[in-house]
C-alpha cells in the first residue's frame, strides 16, 4: 500500500569545509528518506574527494601536480572535473579574464590555500615565473570505439595550478540534487551556497556582516543561491583580481565589505558568478548575468542593498 | 497615579533602547537516539560515561594542541568496541552539539550535527517586558527562525570540527581504547 503520509528529514554534516544542511520531504517512509539523505551526502563526499584543493590526493591535486611539471601532455580527467573546468574556461572567456581558476599560486602565497604542492619548487628545474592562466589550457573529448562515454582530457602549454573553490562546492550541491527524485522536495544549504525546490514565494535572509543584526531579508528569484563575503576571513581575501598585478608581479587581493549574492539555475553557476560580480562593474557584469539567466543582490557593510537583475 | 504610569513608560522605553538583546537561534537536527540509529544502525549501545583525570586532560591538550573543555565524556559503546560520543565545538558565537562515531580501530566513521546554534537579532525588547507593558502577543516579536527558512552569507568554516575530531582522536588513543 503506498505511503500517503508526508515525512521529512533534516540532517547536517561537516563537509566541503563548512556545514552542509540537507532537508528532504515527501510521501515516502522515514526509512526511504534516510536512505535518500545518505545518498545525497555520499554524492557530496564523492565530489569533495575529486575536487578539494585541501586534499593532497584529490583528482584536482593530482591533476595540478601533472600540470605544474609537464606541459603539452594530455592528462585524462573525469567527466565531473571536465564539466567544472568547461564552465570555468567559458566564464574566463566571457568575463575577459576576470574569472580565472588558475590563480591558486597567488592564493597559496597569500596563505589562503595550503601549499602541499610546494609551489616554489614542485619539480626539478621549475621556474615559477612561467605560470600561465586559463588561456593556457584546453579541454577535449576523445571517442573510444564501442564505449558509451568519451574520454576527457586537459592539455596545458604553461605550468598551471587551479583552485576550484566555490564552483566545486556548487557542483557538489547540483550533483547531489540530481540524485533526488522529482517527487521529493529538498533544500541543500552548504554554508550559504544553496539550492532548493521550495524557492518560489520564499524569502532568504542574507548576512552581510559579522555583527548580530547584520541580516537583510530578500525574495528568492531562482532555485540556487550563492553568497560571497569576507567577514569571516582571517587570512585575507579569497578573491584576487586576475587582471591586476602590483609592482611585485603579484595579483592584487580584492577586498570588499558586505555580501554579494547571486541567484541562478544551478549552484555552480551562482557561485562562479559571485566572483565575477565582485570584480567587475555593473555595466560589465550585467550581460554576463543575462547570458546565464542569473541576477545579483549586493549589500554593503552598512546594509544598503542594490540589485543587478536579468 | 498617572505620573507613575508615565514614568514607568519612560523607564521601560529607555531600557528597551539601551539594552541589546540577542536572539539565540537553535536548529535541532537530530535527537541523540536518531543519531545513534544513523551512525550505528541496529547496534546495541551501552552508556559509558568516561571521566578524564586532569593529567589525561593535560596530555590530550598537549598532543592535539586543542583545549579540552570538559573532563566528562558522554559516550556510548557497542559490544564490538566502537564509540558514539557527544561533543561540542564552537560555531560562529555559540556551541554546536555533535555526535561523533569512532570505530574500534580509532577511525572516525561518521559525524552528525545534533543542534546548531547562532546568535542574531536586533535591539528587541525582552518579550515579557513588552507583553506586560503593551499586552501584545509575544510571538510577533519572534523573528527569523519562524519566518525565514534559509540563511545565506559568507561561508563559516568547519575548522573547529576538524580541531574537535583531532582532540577526540587523541582522546581515543590515550584513554578510550583502553577503557573496559
What would you say about this model in short?
Chain A is α+β, with helices and mostly antiparallel strands. Chain A is 29% helix and 27% strand. In chain A, the strands form four sheets. An eight-stranded antiparallel β-sheet of chain A has the order 1-2-6-7-10-13-14-15.
Structure overview:
The complex is a heterodimer of chains A (310) and B (180). With 310 residues, chain A is of the alpha+beta class. Helices cover 29% and strands 27% of the residues of chain A. In chain A, the strands form four sheets. An eight-stranded antiparallel sheet of chain A has the order 1-2-6-7-10-13-14-15. In chain A, strands 3-5-4 form a three-stranded antiparallel sheet, covered by helices on one side. In chain A, strand 11 and strand 12 form a beta hairpin. The mean pLDDT of chain A is 90. By secondary structure, chain B is an alpha+beta fold. Chain B is built from five helices and nine strands; from the N terminus they run H-E-H-E-E-H-E-E-E-E-E-H-E-H. Chain B has a six-stranded antiparallel sheet, sandwiched between helices. In chain B, strands 3-4 form a two-stranded antiparallel sheet. In chain B, 26% of the residues are buried. Classes of the chains: A alpha+beta (310), B alpha+beta (180). Chain A binds chain B through residues 10-15, 17-19, 21, 34, 187, 189, 191-194, 196, 198, 202-208, 210, 212-213, 215, 217, 220, 225-233, 259, 261, and chain B through 20, 22-23, 27, 29-30, 38, 92-93, 111-113, 116, 119-123, 144, 147-158, 161-162. Strand 8 (203-207) of chain A pairs parallel with strand 9 (150-152) of chain B.
Present the secondary structure layout.
The complex is a heterodimer of chains A (310) and B (180).
Chain A: E1 7-15, E2 18-26, H1 30-51, H2 59-69, E3 75-77, H3 79-94, H4 104-109, E4 137-142, E5 151-156, H5 165-177, E6 185-190, E7 193-196, E8 203-207, E9 215-219, E10 224-229, E11 240-245, E12 251-253, E13 259-264, H6 267-279, H7 282-291, E14 295-299, E15 305-308
Chain B: H1 2-18, E1 23-28, H2 32-39, E2 45-47, E3 50-51, H3 54-64, E4 72-73, E5 75-78, E6 83-90, E7 95-102, E8 108-120, H4 127-134, E9 150-152, H5 159-174
Antiparallel strand pairs in B: 1-8, 2-5, 3-4, 5-6, 6-7, 7-8
Helix pairs in contact in B: 3-5
